[in-house]
Design a protein that fits this description.
The chain is mainly β. It is built from one helix and 14 strands.
Length: 213
């Protein structure tokens, strides 16, 4: 997810078709869990891809987030991106207003940065509640590359998403989202941690593979 006009390269995996329970072990060998670790020291690993133009192929990459600090409305994490072309890149990001952030712009910024309007990998609690109760909400996606303003999000159902937590195959409940810009998204169905588990958008896609602490 690198920015500096290099394209965040985060991405997709077998999630391209939004298959439920696509990561980890077969569903039959998994257990259902309602929460996942998210405190300091937690490491989230993703498989992903991105492109600088919707007509060009995605570039695959792996990236990981290591949570350094959390508080009521914010989070600081260290990221590490391993991308085919540019190699490995690291940095630290602080998202200081996860309760009121207005845009999902997951592009990596070099060095140490802080944002009060970007959601990156989570959605605001208000957006989560609207999706859960009213089945619709609005949140910008990729204002940097796609130049979006407001995007309509619609909850089309729920499913179980497969991920490994501390090496153990687990199923977590996810909200299934489709947007007015044809993005497909899965969000952790947890009011305390509305993490974007998987997304397929115009310029990027990603899927959570494992969580450990």
């Amino acid at each position: 997810m690198m920015k500096s006009q290099m394209f965040f390269s985060i991405a997709l995996i077998s999630f391209l078709s939004m298959h439920p329970a696509s990561a980890g072990e077969p569903v039959g060998e998994s257990v259902i869990q309602t929460t996942m670790p998210m405190g300091p020291g937690t490491r989230l690993e993703f498989r992903a891809s991105a492109t600088d133009h919707p007509m060009r192929p995605m570039i695959e990459e792996n990236f990981a987030l290591e949570i350094l600090e959390t508080w009521t409305a914010g989070i600081t994490f260290k990221y590490e991106v391993n991308q085919q072309v540019i190699g490995t890149d690291t940095g630290i990001q602080t998202l200081s207003s996860l309760d009121t952030c207005t845009t999902l712009d997951p592009w990596w910024d070099p060095g140490e940065t802080s944002f009060d309007d970007r959601c990156e990998f989570w959605i605001p609690a208000s957006t989560y509640r609207e999706l859960l109760v009213n089945h619709k909400s609005y949140l910008s996606i990729d204002t940097l590359a796609r130049k979006d303003a407001v995007v309509r999000w619609e909850q089309t159902g729920k499913t179980h998403f497969s991920v490994k937590i501390n090496g153990r195959p687990v199923l977590v409940e996810a909200l299934v989202i489709h947007t007015s810009r044809n993005d497909d998204i899965m969000i952790m169905n947890d009011p305390d941690n509305p993490l974007i588990l998987a997304i397929q958008s115009t310029f990027f896609a990603w899927e959570l593979v494992s969580v450990s602490n």
